[in-house]
Structure formats: structure tokens, C-alpha cells
Design a protein that fits this description.
- The protein has three helices and six strands, in the order ααββββαββ.
- The chain is an alpha+beta fold.
- The protein has two domains: 3-75; 90-148, no CATH class.
- The chain has a six-stranded mixed beta sheet.
- Helix 1 packs antiparallel against helix 2 (42-75).
- The two termini are 15 Å apart.
């Protein structure tokens, strides 16, 4: 399996784990909401229900973010080769390596560290459309693009 395939697979695993965690939170909160009975002390009961409702809303928002990540991953063609940084590119600079995909953080393949970043993130926006040898400055640090795959 090549590096890009492995990075893509790790991003899929990242998204699936997040989806599972959020689904479990929603299920747990739903059970807690259903088990809250009116026999509890009035205000305390209402506060508990309100807190659970807020948790449910937060989890639902996270679920829609996860769905967006899945859609972005479905648009990546890992066999596409280009000298211009695009969604699905591996960009190696003189200091850091990036995988333009979703914000999945640090990934390691064959002992080499890559940062999976979204094209809508600040660094992702900077990298998008760059070519070999281009310089970019991020957080006041200059980086030179050494390779795009």
C-alpha cells in the first residue's frame, strides 16, 4: 500500500471512530432523557433535562461535521497525480509534511509524520494551489515545498 493510500485509510478510520463516539453519546443521552421522570425534584429535573438537550444538540452538530468529513473524503482521488497542491495531495516541505484532506491531525506512515489538514483550514488554504519550490509563511515560519504527490 502506498503512502497516500495509507494516509487516506487513516483518515477514514479517524472519521469512523469519531462517528461511533458521537453516536454512542447521542444514544446514552437519549436513554438518560427517557429515564428522567417527573418524580424528581422540579427545578433540578428541568435543569437535568435542559443539560441533556444541550448535549444532544452539540452531538448532533458534531455528527453533521463528521458527515461533511465523509463527503470530503469521498471526493479524494488518491490515484490523481499533479504538481499543483489539491485535495488529496501530499505536500512535503523542508520542515513539515501535509496531507490535504480533512482535519485529522498527526498521522504516521512508515515512521514519517504527516499532518492531515482540511483545505478550508488556514494552512490548507495556504497550501492549496501551490507548486514545487513555492515558499509560504505560516505562523511566521517560512516553509519551502520540496515535493507534491
Amino acid at each position: 500500500m502506498n503512502i497516500k493510500e495509507e494516509l487516506f485509510k487513516q483518515c477514514e478510520i479517524f472519521v469512523n471512530k469519531r462517528a461511533q463516539t458521537v453516536t454512542e453519546i447521542i444514544s446514552s443521552n437519549q436513554k438518560a432523557l427517557n429515564s428522567e421522570t417527573k418524580s424528581s425534584a422540579g427545578d433540578k429535573h428541568e435543569t437535568g433535562r435542559a443539560m441533556l438537550q444541550l448535549e444532544m444538540e452539540k452531538a448532533s452538530q458534531q455528527l453533521s461535521g463528521i458527515q461533511e468529513m465523509k463527503e470530503i473524503l469521498s471526493k479524494i482521488n488518491i490515484s490523481k497525480k499533479s504538481t499543483i497542491a489539491h485535495l488529496g495531495s501530499i505536500i512535503e516541505t523542508d520542515s513539515v509534511n501535509y496531507f490535504l484532506s480533512i482535519s485529522a491531525g498527526q498521522l504516521t506512515v512508515n515512521g514519517k509524520v504527516y499532518f492531515a489538514v482540511s483545505v478550508s483550514s488556514p494552512i490548507g488554504k495556504l497550501l492549496l494551489g501551490k507548486t514545487l519550490g513555492n515558499e509560504l509563511v505560516f505562523n511566521k515560519i517560512k516553509k519551502i515545498i520540496r515535493n507534491i504527490n
